[in-house]
Design brief:
alpha/beta; Zincin-like; 4-stranded mixed beta sheet; 3-stranded mixed beta sheet; about 35% helix; globular
């Protein structure tokens, strides 16, 4: 495998190095993800030679980070799912793949606990894209109901909710009141989903992690410290086929 390659999110590829250009980056940095993928974030117009040199300088640190993650995250091979379990919303779904000749994409249809994927199901990428679209719809529907109910309980309104699929963040809240939730929360314990929602709602009053913020969180989640630790360890519950790591 080359030392680094252009960024890709193709499922089924072994964890390796990828490079992402960022207009916001002021310097080169390295992120190591739980299942071993390494992302080098670079300012625009950074030369390939500079990236290679930077990776070489940090090779030992990368190795230690990968070893540390390997103690807690069992490597998984890429396999498209036959069953999808979503503990956060108490749902289990059977997935069936229906190939169609000359199809260039994959579409989905869900009914009675069965998710049918039809089209170019021989393409892992197209199947994962369809699964992600379906999951986004489920998350949008299920999360908004819960978030609005908790908003009333905590008396902390929000303006909008977005569903995203971040690699390092479970959720966030903007200064304008938009709460973004990671669709990967679907794979977690319902208690962790509730805690994350309470956390982001409380940022409506305190846009920081001050003592006042945590005191407000504790009113609705007395065990927030334990929940926060569990949430930080829960990336291992995100299936490999989703392509996050």
């Amino acid at each position: 495998m080359p030392l680094f390659e252009a960024e890709h999110d193709q499922p089924g590829q072994a964890p390796g190095f990828s490079v992402r250009q960022s207009s916001r980056a002021k310097r080169l940095s390295i992120k190591v993800f739980p299942r071993g993928r390494v992302e080098v974030v670079v300012p625009k117009r950074t030369s390939a030679r500079s990236v290679r040199a930077f990776v070489e300088e940090n090779r030992e640190w990368i190795g230690r980070a990968r070893e540390s993650f390997a103690e807690h995250f069992t490597p998984e091979s890429f396999v498209l799912p036959d069953i999808i379990r979503l503990p956060a919303v108490d749902r289990q779904v059977i997935v069936r793949y229906r190939p169609e000749r000359d199809a260039s994409s994959v579409r989905f249809r869900y009914a009675n606990g069965i998710l049918n994927l039809r089209g170019n199901t021989g393409s892992e990428k197209h199947c994962v894209d369809a699964l992600r679209r379906w999951l986004s719809g489920i998350a949008r529907k299920e999360f908004e109901t819960r978030l609005r109910a908790l908003s009333l309980v905590t008396e902390t309104p929000f303006s909008k909710m977005h569903i995203r699929m971040q690699r390092t963040c479970w959720g966030s809240r903007s200064s304008s009141g938009t709460i973004s939730l990671n669709l990967c929360l679907l794979f977690l314990d319902p208690a962790l989903l509730r805690y994350l929602m309470v956390h982001e709602l409380c940022h409506g009053r305190h846009m920081n992690h001050s003592k006042r913020f945590w005191k407000l969180v504790s009113r609705f989640e007395p065990g927030y410290r334990k929940l926060d630790r569990r949430l930080g360890e829960s990336w291992r519950d995100v299936p490999a086929w989703l392509g996050i790591y």
